[in-house]
Amino acid sequence: MHLTCSAQGTNYPLTVATTLKHFNCESFASWELLLNSVECWLLTTVLDRTHAKWLYGVLLYWMAFVGIYPEFPAGSN
């Protein structure tokens, strides 16, 4: 699944809330959707990397990334 960042200016809490509404922690697709939602938000909305929202988003991004690739960085895909 590849999502494009078409929701420029989207409010992060609403985007994540929509994603998390149907989130299944055992589903690869759920983790991937969360990862893509956070990535799009970071790249299109929060451009100030010193802002607390940016730091929170980066932490959530890496949590979702490890959810998709639990063997990272030692394993293989």
Task: Count every helix, treating DSSP H or I runs of 4 or more residues as helices.
Answer: 3
Q: Could you give the count of β-strands?
A: 0
Helix content: 55-70%
Rg, rounded, reads 13 Å
Oligomeric organization of the protein chains: single chain
Q: On the 0-100 scale, what is the average pLDDT?
A: 76
Q: Which regions are unreliable across 5 or more consecutive residues at pLDDT < 50?
A: none
What structural class should be given to the helix and strand makeup? Answer: mainly alpha
Order of helices and strands: HHH
- Beta fraction of the residues? under 5%
Given the C-alpha coordinates, what overall shape results?
A: globular
Q: Largest beta sheet, briefly?
A: none
**Termini Cα gap:** 16 Å
Question: What attributes characterize this protein structure?
Answer:
77 residues, mainly alpha
What does this entry look like structurally?
There is one protein chain. The protein is mostly helical and 77 residues long. 57% of the residues lie in helices and 0% in strands. Helix 1 runs antiparallel to helix 2 (28-44) and helix 2 packs antiparallel against helix 3. The chain is globular. The two termini are 16 Å apart. The relative contact order is 0.17.
